[in-house]
Amino acid sequence: MRIVSALTVFVAMALSAVATSAVFSDWNWFVPTVAVIFLTVATGWLARLSDVARNTGLTVLVQFVVGFFAVIAVTLPATTLLGIIPTGSSFTELAGSIAQGFRDVYAAPAPAPSTAGLTVLAAVSFALLTMLVDSLVHDLHLTHIAGALVLATWLIPVFIAASSIQWWHTCAVAVAFILLLLTAHAGTSRGFLWAVTAGALALFLGIGLPLLMPPIVPQANKPAGDDQNVKVINPFLDLRANLTNKSDDVVFSYESTDPLEPPVRLTSVSEFDGKKWAPAAFSFKRGASPDAGLPVGDLGPDIEANTYTSTFAITGLGGNHLPAQYAPIETSGLGDRWIYGRDTLTIVGNNVGVDGLNYSVKYRSVEPTSEQLKKAPAVKEDAFEQYLKLPNDLPSDIREEASKITKDAETDWDKAAKLQAYFRDFEYSLDAPNEASGSVLSQFLKDRRGYCVQFSAAMATMARMEGIPARIGVGFTAGEPNDAGGYDVTMQRSHAWPELYFEGAGWVRFEPTPGGPAGPPPPWSIEGGEAPEPEEPTQEPSEEPAPEEEEAAEPTPTPSEEPAPEEEPKATSAVPFLVGAGVLALILLALVPFVLRTRARSRRLRTPLNANLVWEEIRATEVDCGYAVTPSDTLAKRGRDLAEQYPDHAQDIEALIGALERERYAGTDREALDIDARGLVADVKKDRAGSAFARARATLWPRSLWKKK
């Protein structure tokens, strides 16, 4: 029964998704993915009720169209009409989400949170895999290959999240394999035993064999991986999603005696291509653990710096950025899997995440006065080229506004203070784009409303225009005091702020955002050093930062060092690769029947020729061309008809029919034929098909693979 077979494929694919769940830290991706699997299988079952779709191979095409619409409806319903009908934005959002999913794969260590990009990527991947498995089972009757494909999905968690695999993950993929094998041997006890035996072997290979292998002992002072760039996420561009989440869950707590209550920093972003801000390349060396101490730059004369220690307990934060106040000088409790950028002092995990960590950070709080910053000499532009770089196509009104704001400023500090004061007259609002491109910043200046993404990016951009090195710090504001004397931080405290460089003081924090979680500006950013009363947050709670970019922080200068200029990395979009890969996958899928049919023809016409196989190939060719014969015709009559239709092959046909009759009716041994079998088959195909189009269809969609001869 077709419906039983279809349900078997659905259950097998759902179990395959269960096995793959080891790479995720939650199940938010699972329901949309299983829904797409169900719609794909159901579409195939319904389409095969039609003889036309079943016999011509159109089922896969119908499944592809329905699957495409299903992915959009299930994962991107906000872009559709009535929750079903795609719009123009649906296609744009789908391509962007898939590209983001590829970036998210490399952005955070597994098990990773099921971001919007990863959810769409999982749904698309399982839709395509389900189409292929369903076609192999029902159209091509190659169930063993379908089972092998399902087993191949097991490689994903094995290579990406081996430490997260549980016994039930392996059982799920083994049961899926058994179910598919049972569809190939339904109704036979031998087939049942064979399927169960193969599944038991899969269980042994997945569970028993790893238990017999010796454990891998990590070597001390060596982070995992090669001496290459570490991939870390860019939490900057997803801040609005984090700020609008309704969760009040505490993602980490900490204790500190710092009276200034500075923000807790994750990283800094410094690369701006006109569309987005992102971290730059993050270099590291083996053994560069922050537990052994981080480099400390020299300060200018009379600039005050105090040392404080904070203790952290991470209870629900994803990613591999370590929360720490700036500038960290030593950590305790991290170990050798954590590394840092020598100049940015961003601390990241090398294939390890932050969730569940308990550690302490000793940091130096540099506290200059506004008068000291006023006296700071101008920086050497060639040493800070990457922090002054701006794209050439920024809207001119941004530069004009920056010049207007700072026209009476005498020093870099005066410029920075005027920019900060200018933006603090704006309105804080989450009703703004979650981007910081040039066009968005231009509109932001007109609307005079936004949130920390626009405020920090606009001030950093204008500061660079005025010759001040600038980057953006990303992390959280101090948090809410708790009963233990420390602070609790939720995602509503997600924040970004500009950091400007001043000789003698290093990277100095400013605060242009007038509301939300930002709080008052630091004392050194205001004339006289007196900050206004703290402002009450006005935003909604939010959720954990989602991975956005597959990039990482680049070395930045300390007060005593000048960075060597590096070539700016070029952002690469995954969309062209995705489109090309999708087209290639469809072409390969379409060619599967042709390849299988070609192999079958070669096997049947292999020398020495076998009469039964040659006759089977002639009948298969007629079926491919849609030619029907009278079932009651005898072998002798079929031979006479063929000889009349193909007189050039009359002797070969007579020899073929004679050999078949002797083998079938006289019981003689198989004879070695000496006939032009390939020429006969070619003429049969040409004659039975008729037109060139029909011959092409018979070649690419050979119906003999799924239709009885």
Describe the structure.
- The strands form six sheets. Strands 8-11-7-3-16-15 form a six-stranded antiparallel beta sheet, with no helix packed on it. A four-stranded antiparallel beta sheet has the order 4-14-17-18.
- By secondary structure, it is an alpha+beta fold.
- A hairpin with a 5-residue loop joins strand 15 (480-481) and strand 16 (487-490).
- The protein has 22 helices and 18 strands.
- It is elongated, with a radius of gyration of 34 Å.
Topology record:
Layout: H1 2-20, H2 30-47, H3 51-56, H4 58-75, E1 80-81, E2 85-86, H5 88-107, H6 116-138, H7 143-152, H8 155-160, H9 167-184, H10 189-212, H11 239-243, E3 250-255, E4 264-269, E5 271-272, E6 277-278, E7 304-314, E8 328-332, E9 338-340, E10 347-349, E11 358-367, H12 370-374, H13 396-405, H14 412-423, E12 427-428, H15 438-447, E13 449-450, H16 452-465, E14 470-476, E15 480-481, E16 487-490, E17 494-502, E18 506-509, H17 575-604, H18 611-624, H19 635-645, H20 650-666, H21 677-689, H22 692-700
Parallel strand pairs: 12-13
Antiparallel strand pairs: 1-2, 3-7, 3-16, 4-14, 5-6, 7-11, 8-11, 9-10, 14-17, 15-16, 17-18
